[in-house]
Amino acid sequence: MSTNDIIDAEVKSSDVVLFMKGTPQVPMCGFSGQVVQILDYIGVPYKGVNVLENAEIRQGIKDYSNWPTIPQLYVKGEFVGGCDITREMFQSGELQQFFIDKGIALAKAGA
Questions:
Q1: Contact indicator for 48, 20 with CB cutoff of 8 Å
Q2: Could you read off the pLDDT of 26-77 as tens digits, one per residue?
Q3: How far lies 92's CA from each of 19, 52, 87, 89, 98, in Å?
Q4: For residue 61, which phi and psi values (nearest 5 degrees)?
Q5: Gap between the Cα atoms of 83 and 36, Å rounded
Q6: Half-sphere CA count of 79, side-chain side, radius 13 A
Q7: pTM of the predicted model, to two decimals?
Q8: Which of 22, 43, 83, 99 has its CA 20 to 30 A from that of 93?
Q9: With contact defined as beta carbons under 8 Å apart, do 107 and 94 qualify?
Q10: Do 51 and 20 meet the contact criterion of CB atoms below 8 Å apart?
């Protein structure tokens, strides 16, 4: 399997996938930590992929999405964005609606 195939399989392995530095339990950069906080706050189940464990995945995800930074959020196989886009969508309520529109339940009331 090529790196691109591995990434493609990860992206499609869960409804919500976050390619990040570190893990959801222990983010290793502030930007990854912010996205984890947002996802945890609104109560969306997601899979974290630690790009620090594999240099090929770390570079490959940038090529896969044509997006230069990590973290990267994918919903139902679709690239949503990095930290800034995710934060802006969350603050406007657009992210929560996006999840609802994609059929992903939010666990937190009022999210």
A1: yes
A2: 999 999 999 999 999 999 999 999 999 999 999 999 999 999 999 999 999 9
A3: 23, 31, 9, 5, 11
A4: -70, -30
A5: 10
A6: 18
A7: 0.94
A8: 22
A9: no
A10: yes
pLDDT band at 107, cuts 50/70/90?
Answer: confident
Task: Categorize the per-residue pLDDT at 111 as very low, low, confident or very high, splitting at 50, 70 and 90.
Answer: very low
Collapsing DSSP to helix, strand or coil, 2 comes out as: coil
The two tokens of residue 73 are 């959020």
Mean pLDDT taken over the chain: 95
Kindly provide the b/e burial profile for residues 31-54, where b requires at least 16 CB atoms within 10 angstroms of the residue's own CB.
Answer: bbbbbbebbeebebebebbbbeee
| φ, ψ at 101 (rounded to 5°) | -60, -30
CB 79 within 8 A of CB 65: yes
The encoded tokens of residue 14 equal 């869960």
